[in-house]
Records
---
Amino acid sequence: MTWNVVLGLLALVLAPIGLFTVAASGSRQVRRLLARRASARRERQRLARALAEGDKRPVTSLADRPRLPVDQSAIRDSPYVYLTDLRITDLRCFREARLSLRFPGEFATPDAAPLVPNVNLLIGDNGTGKSTVLRAAAMVALGPVLDSSGFVPYRLVREERDTALVEGRLAFGGVGGPEPLACDVRMRRRGDFEVVETDTRGPYWDDLFDESSPSFFVAGYGVNRRTAEDARSDPSQEKGRRRRRFQRVSSLFDETVSLVSFGAWLPTVSAERRREVAEVLRRALPDDVRFDDDFDGEDAVFRRRGVPVPFRALSDGYRSYLGWLGDLLFHLSAVAPAHVPLGSMGGIVLVDEIDLLLHPEWQRKVVLDVAVMFPNIQFILTTHSPIVTGTLQARNILLARDDPDESVSRLSEVRAEVHGLNAEQVLLSSYFSLDTTRAPDVADDLTELARKAVRGDDAARRRYLAVLVDGATGSR
């Protein structure tokens, strides 16, 4: 049954019972719904065409992007490196995928930049490769130290292929110099194992071999946000084979990795650093939760509505968010020069499912909060949340989709704007492609009522109308 039939049903049902005002309102509502669905269909068709042509699109050139004026002689001194372009071949679910990324300093003027210029958000169904993109980004960001870092590739090469390749382009300080950095990471099958090889081009890679250098900073967080149970241990050294640079991203590849707890490091840093951390947490947490630099033995103590709560007693949502944020602050403080505030540090941060376990109210702010707190950090994030998606503009969003005809995933940029839409509007858009947000049993009831109404059942017509007007089925 089409929505044109529904519109006719509204007129048939309402006219005999005299609800002319409601009929007019219902008709307008249905017309708006029809228009929205037609727009969504057109956008899905556009995306399908874009996905079909995805392999043919060239990687965006650094030279094509507006740049800030820069003294090229200062490039060597800039500690911040950002990932600008990524190409993936035969890695897990991807046969070939290309993407260009937002990064700090990318745009020549603030007016040309999106509202949040340092965030990239990947959305898509489960199994479409969002986590794989984060792993690929981590590999190329580690460059020539990857093969000696303790990284062991496991089932990364696409089935029925012998080699996977990840190619990355990087730029210093948001500025592509005369010789932009490039890194290729190749994984080859050898019997039951996979081996990794890296090939780097361009100058200035030397700082990557200094693990205490702020250059080439990259941190990554998988969906496991568990912190070390023993606060006295430093999980960044818990596996001696792993170099610290790889340990910062290892939870993307290994679910057993523990993050560094506040008690493992915060009491040992300077008073000024502790004040900075307390301020970051104040800005990151809801108004009724705060951290006053208190500890109960080796456990950080937060205050929720004035009541002291040890970190281990916080809810899963708080521990998930504070787990990766605290680990990030630890790694930033470990490499930041004494005179550089943590909020001024730059680099790349990868977070899988940024909305994990967070209340919807928190989801509305989490990405904007971290982007503003760390304006020099390039964030590459994934989410399933329509609320998180609606906080960003189309230029910040990348869509991962299955190609059912070829059993591969593809990436595409999005064009239809979702910024400012409510959660239901985002879910019904082409990016999530839901036909309805109603509970399955309610949707089934509506379908059955519509069928009965078409066959002339007056009671079904009235019931169908009541659901459309009231928004719920009520008791059966």
Note: The longest strand covers residues 81-91.
---
Amino acid sequence: MGTIMISKKKLIPALAAALLLLPSCAPSGMSRVSQTDISSAYTRTDLSVAAARGPVPVIFSGTIPATDQSKAEAALLAALPRYYVAGLTWRPATANDAGTRLVFAFGAEPIFPPDRLCGLAPRLTLTPPSASTPIQVAAAYCRGPSALSSTVGDVIDPAGITGERAANLISGMANALLPLHTPGDDDFRRPLFLRTGS
């Protein structure tokens, strides 16, 4: 039987990538953003063009831990980053927004196929915040019916969706979905695996 030789240079990155795909062992209260996929059709141009048209629509759908819907929606929008190319800003989406948009789906089982995320309409249901139940989120950056990027994440935040830990999660997920404007780095389509602390 032959022996399979694997160099250390190839083995270590492969092991690191495999570990990142395992269920999170982060302590309670940590934000976890994992398993981000970015389409080969997705480039920085998509983001620049979307930003040039004005605030990018954001859809929030599913069940969120909160007691006041307007405060929850404001907190979610405030958590999104605002320092990308062309002065990217955000606004709540309407049912008519079918172009470029961000979609966040919340719930006990929020992980959908990415393209199904792009078919969701803005619709939130409130549930009491919990100190033990994770806030689970699936998100996608959509163009029409197609997901250009997608990611999943979770966090435990006793304050619910308006808490700081939840805000860190939403911000981290948006960072994972969007191509960062990094000087000297032209590869905006590589898979990203991020973990952000509370």
Note: The chain has one domain: 27-177.
---
Amino acid sequence: MAKGIVKWFHRKKGYGFITTDAGEDVFVHYTTIQGDGFRFLNDGETVEYQAEKAAKGLKATAVTRLNELQTSEAAAAVANPVSEE
């Protein structure tokens, strides 16, 4: 299993990219994220995944979040955004 950082993830479209330690981009689709319920990733989140070659480059499979606390805090921040006023 490889580790990487989520570069960006579009929740409505259900896909994004993970950056490897070598700086390569790996495509990730929500269907490959392990877990129940609404599956998404947060930008900057550390994940573990398997990668395989696809027609346009690498794609992630079996994506697992490495820090559940980080995920919970990020979900709370999205649910209760801080006002800049």
Note: Strands lie at 2-10, 15-20, 25-29, 46-54, 57-65.
